[in-house]
Amino acid sequence: MGGILAVANQKGGVGKTTTAVNLAAAVALAGHRVLLVDLDPQGNATSGLGVARHELERHVYHLLMGGAALDDILRPTAVENLAILPAARDLTGAEIELAEMAEWEYALADKLRPAAARFEVIFIDCPPSLGRLTVNAMVAADGVLVPLQTEYYAMEGLTELLATVDSIRAGLNPNLTLAGIVLTMYDGRTNLARDVEQEIRRHFGELVFKTVVPRSVRLAEAPSHGLPVMLYDGRSQGAEAYLELSRELLRRYRFS
Amino acid sequence: MGGILAVANQKGGVGKTTTAVNLAAAVALAGHRVLLVDLDPQGNATSGLGVARHELERHVYHLLMGGAALDDILRPTAVENLAILPAARDLTGAEIELAEMAEWEYALADKLRPAAARFEVIFIDCPPSLGRLTVNAMVAADGVLVPLQTEYYAMEGLTELLATVDSIRAGLNPNLTLAGIVLTMYDGRTNLARDVEQEIRRHFGELVFKTVVPRSVRLAEAPSHGLPVMLYDGRSQGAEAYLELSRELLRRYRFS
Ligand SMILES: Nc1ncnc2c1ncn2[C@@H]1O[C@H](COP(=O)(O)OP(=O)(O)OP(=O)(O)O)[C@@H](O)[C@H]1O
Ligand SMILES: Nc1ncnc2c1ncn2[C@@H]1O[C@H](COP(=O)(O)OP(=O)(O)OP(=O)(O)O)[C@@H](O)[C@H]1O
Ligand SMILES: [Mg+2]
Ligand SMILES: [Mg+2]
């Protein structure tokens, strides 16, 4: 497995950005050179790492549409070894403009090729849809990481999401694997969370990471400080969970 | 104010579906004839009210694209006075196919016209995006109801959402108002929720409903039973909050 992971789920608010930001930071803190690509026009991963969205002249939209090179857009973050390709609002335009490009599905894969040599792991934060931006991420990626909130509505969308991964593997990206399902916002005191966990582990077995991310208010507070949770409150349950998840990810996949 | 409310916010997982389903049910239980339109291809409002998405031959996609009439698609729910226009997966196609229709922005407004005479209030549940489906909902609506999760990332998207409402009012739908902002998933024990509430009320004053919806696991459990929360657990905080919110909504707007 190479080093590009698309963090995707069309269900909204399941912890895609929180997982992309904190997992990327944890892998970088372990000494790997990591890139986080923000492919959501909301730009939450960008502001979650302290980059001011509104001041960006060049961002991932310009990379995707061919208006700028990788080095014009790459930015450092508060974490050593972690760089970001930030997003801003006008990335929304790409959802429509990509349709006019020949082989639009490969736009991101082509543009990220120079990055693959410089970074050991690349995470792509996806918007809450299965539109052209998410397709681009899945075509560029080696694997899809699926954050799954342990609730009913989030379970409903899983079939469609996995069907989309299968159809991209069958056509546009034969290497694409399902890197795993991460259970997020887990509140062990509720039957709901326990029932969902049991059902998901029964259906998907080893595909589900052993590490579960608990509901932890520190994870929701950290973005307002522009920091990943381990730099905001390193002793919190949220920080421990993402550090543990990064170790499990690195055990499963030897990024070279 | 007429009776069509679009429940919208491009930020994912902020409680759009939960608000649309439970507020529609509460208004119906108060004796008003209510229609809930599920305009999200995820179809959460549809399954949240017990309708089996996968068995639907005709749904809101066919109404929008002109393949079926309102009465072919309307379905009753477990709540007297509440009907639903259900959604299924292939509604995703409308996001792209609408572009080929002349005046695509008015597709839903035109198709809902016969319903406006039969229902006193119509709620439209929107997907987590500002794409063509959400634009259709805002063009058809008299007001936009904005569920806002009391957290940092959710606040970030508010400016873009309100700018979209303004631009639709300036062009496609001069009657469109901001019906109000509803604070959701509120956990009064955290500074984060209290800080966000204070900031939102300072900025938006009367536009923010007094009723706040607390985090209540009953709200997350009810959809798996296909019931609104007041029929699943009428004494829960979640049920009380949406009943209270419906009373505040009806005081603010006399639906005729
Ligand atoms: N484990 C957790 N504990 C507590 N809060 C969390 C946790 N994970 C995420 N959050 C908070 O929940 C909200 C939703 O998470 P996030 O924005 O990461 O989801 P998302 O899937 O990226 O959303 P979108 O679909 O809008 O892109 C955010 O306010 C975030 O701070
Ligand atoms: N007040 C609440 N307390 C507890 N859980 C809630 C509350 N409101 C919503 N939920 C749960 O949080 C999750 C997100 O809510 P919901 O699906 O209604 O948001 P949404 O904005 O419609 O999401 P999407 O952007 O995917 O359409 C769901 O699992 C829902 O059951
Ligand atoms: Mg996100
Ligand atoms: Mg929804």
Give a short synopsis of this structure:
The structure is a homodimer of 256-residue chains. The first copy, chain A, is α/β, with parallel strands linked by helices and 256 residues long. Chain A contains 13 helices and seven strands.
Mean pLDDT of chain A: 96
Q: Radius of gyration of chain A, rounded?
A: 17 Å
* Strand arrangement, major sheet of chain A: 3-4-2-5-1-6-7
Helicity range of chain A:
40-55%
Low-pLDDT runs of chain A: none
Helix-strand sequence of chain A: EHEHHHEEHHEHEHHEHHHH
Number of helices of chain A: 13
Could you tell me the strand content of chain A as a percent range?
5-15%
The set of bound ligands, ions and cofactors reads:
adenosine-5'-triphosphate, magnesium ion
Shape of chain A: globular
Oligomer: homodimer
* Largest interface, C-beta within 8 A: A-B, 35 and 35 residues
